[in-house]
Amino acid sequence: MLGSGGREHALCWKLAQSAAVAENGGKLYAAPGNPGMAECAQLVALDAKNHAAVVAFCEEHAIGLVVIGPEAPLVDGLADSLRAADVPVFGPSQAAAQLEGSKNFTKALCDRAGIPTAGYVHCTSLAQAKAALTTFAPPFVLKADGLAAGKGVVIAESEEHAVEALEDMFDGAFGQAGAEVVIEEFMAGEEASFFALTDGDTVIPFGTAQDHKRVGDGDTGPNTGGMGAYSPARVLTEDLVAETLERIVFPTVRQMRQDGTPYVGVLYAGLMLTDEGAKLVEYNCRFGDPECQVLMMRLQSDLAEYMLACASGTLAKLPEPTFAEDTAMTVVMAANGYPATPEKGGTIDLDDAEGQGAKVFHAGTALKDGQLVANGGRVLNVTASGADTKAAQKAAYAAVGKIDFPSGFYRSDIGWREIAREG
Ligand code: AMP
Ligand code: GLY
């Protein structure tokens, strides 16, 4: 397992329960991992940017499967380096990871495959972008083309604001990611996340979730990587899931294969549920964080078996995976200052937060002289299940209440929209 966040802890935790892993010696390594992952994997200091070192480690330890958690190493081509050395890997090639790595790549693919998404203009200069603005109505959706750690999207209410944001982007506010910009039509609706596994050919739906991106209660304040999530996303009805597969996911996987860049791994479709049906907002080439944590809480099938089947092109042989009917919820505990400048080093006492059946995934923790401390923006993902969203929320917050993290904070309303619908 490569990565060190809550998503990777959840994946590791699930892999540790796998019969397929046990049959192959039961050994899990996490690089670099985190203190929470140490309960299920041996932590190793490996730099994912050093492909030769990762390959050498895998060869030396006869690694049967590498799971790449975050997007950066995928966009950097680590999966290619591993495949070139015959190491089985769960995760797309560099070319296929462009689905997340370049907004323009995905928009152009949607055009070719007829996938419903917002209309757009791809701009390579400030002058061109300013001129293109006149063809859109506010609010303006402006996106730096490349990876920008989830921060490359600006929604500007006025033209004046939009021009300022474009000037910042072309001025290097998002580094190289902003050298090209995509301007999009604004889509109104509710957002939901849809996950599918694929070996490049066969596609298997792998759950739904919704997250809360804003830092504050009532979905207010700046955007974050996600302050909490729940699964399933009941707004994605069976009909909408079928429509998403038919109109968005299948055509994408087919087009990628036809283009000679088959997509292998998990495909995460960010959807907007508009009056005209589900439309694609964006693709991610990895599991959502913290959406993965709630998916893993509900997954009943053997995760390793499915990941190995993706890696070896044998997904067609497996049945659809099963997920618990329950709702799972995760509440993110973040360090004060997040998302701007999170305070590092604050002490954490988990007490018996897991005593009631909750699971605490570590997202940004470190051990300092034996004491667990905060070491990132999002620090803990407190995850629990219940018969419905309300019950899951109660269980998750009961566990949050046991945790002593004086320099941290959390949202107190994760799942509010769904709970209002449950009535
Ligand atoms: P992205 O990184 O492309 O997912 O964009 C981040 C967030 O911006 C999304 O989760 C949406 O909330 C919002 N967003 C992006 N594109 C659009 C769009 N075309 N219309 C409305 N909202 C959007
Ligand atoms: N939680 C949003 C993401 O992983 O992109």
Number of strands: 22
Ligand types: adenosine monophosphate, glycine
* Contiguous runs where pLDDT drops below 50 for at least 5 residues: none
Determine the structural class based on helices, strands and strand pairing: alpha+beta
For the record, give the distance between the C-alpha atoms at the N and C termini, rounded to a whole number: 40 Å
β-strand percent reads 25-35%
Whole-number radius of gyration? 21 Å
Q: What best-fitting shape do the alpha-carbon axes yield?
A: globular
Helix content: 25-40%
For the largest beta-sheet, the strand count, sense and barrel status come to: 9 strands, antiparallel
Average pLDDT number: 95
What can you tell me about this protein's structure?
The protein has 423 residues and is of the alpha+beta class. It is built from 14 helices and 22 strands. It has helices at residues 6-15, 19-23, 51-60, 71-75, 78-84, 98-101, 103-113, 126-133, 159-170, 238-258, 291-298, 303-312, 389-402, 416-422, and strands at 2-3, 29-32, 42-43, 66-67, 89-90, 120-123, 140-144, 153-156, 181-184, 190-198, 203-211, 214-216, 220-223, 228-231, 265-274, 277-284, 327-335, 359-362, 365-368, 371-374, 378-386, 408-409. The strands form six sheets. Strands 10, 11, 14, 15, 16, 17, 18, 21 and 22 form a nine-stranded antiparallel beta sheet that branches. A four-stranded antiparallel beta sheet has the order 6-9-7-8, sandwiched between helices. Strand 12 (214-216) and strand 13 form a beta hairpin. Helix 1 packs parallel to helix 11 (291-298) and helix 8 runs antiparallel to helix 9. The longest helix is centred in the middle third of the chain and has 21 residues, at 238-258. The mean pLDDT is 95. Bound molecules: adenosine monophosphate (AMP) and glycine. Adenosine monophosphate (AMP) binds at residues 118, 141, 143, 153, 184, 186-187, 191, 270, 281-282.
